[in-house]
Amino acid sequence: MKQIGSSQASRVTLAWASRSIGLVLTVAMAMAAPWVQAQNVSFGPATFNKSVDLADTPINLNGAGIRYRFGFKVYAAGLYLQNKAATPEAALSAGGPKRIQLVMLREVDGAELGKLFVRGIENNTPKGEDLSKIVPGTARLGDAFAQVFAGGKKLTVGETLTLDFVPGVGTIMSHNGKQVGDATKEPQFYVALMRLWLGQDPADRQLKEAMLGQAAPAPAKAAI
Known about the structure:
224 residues; two-stranded antiparallel sheet
């Protein structure tokens, strides 16, 4: 049996170590790199681009789906983050800019939707949480809906509501690309807002899974 000399063994060891280090670095870089949705996602008039820029920062579509109520499609929703989040905890604790985009799939009473948002925030805020960082933003959100949808104005098919979080600025609500009201500075408020879709009592459980990339975009069975 041919024996390997010490110098040759050293070269083999160094080569193996080099390949191992290279593999580790490749895996680490892949884990650190922002996750990007393979393609745009569409639901009728609603199209969610796989990546958008917010505050000069690229954020990626984490997942998108449809909100059903009583068997009817109400709106499509997409969640944008810098990095992939497969659990509510990961999404709620994600840093950097974030976006939740809603596109109407049927006519919706805007004021009523605002009330549902406020109620959803209340239902998904854990007991014992400091409400001083949430209540002002919740009241401001209700006022924004009342301002835009006064007089029974409705959201029609294809109209959009965008809820952005920009570090150092806060939560910004936009209707069809136009900002509504002032920003809410407290970061805790955006977390409370995200819980509408990702909390323990979400608007739609199948939509929650879709926004986390855990399910097919369009549920086979409507959730009530």
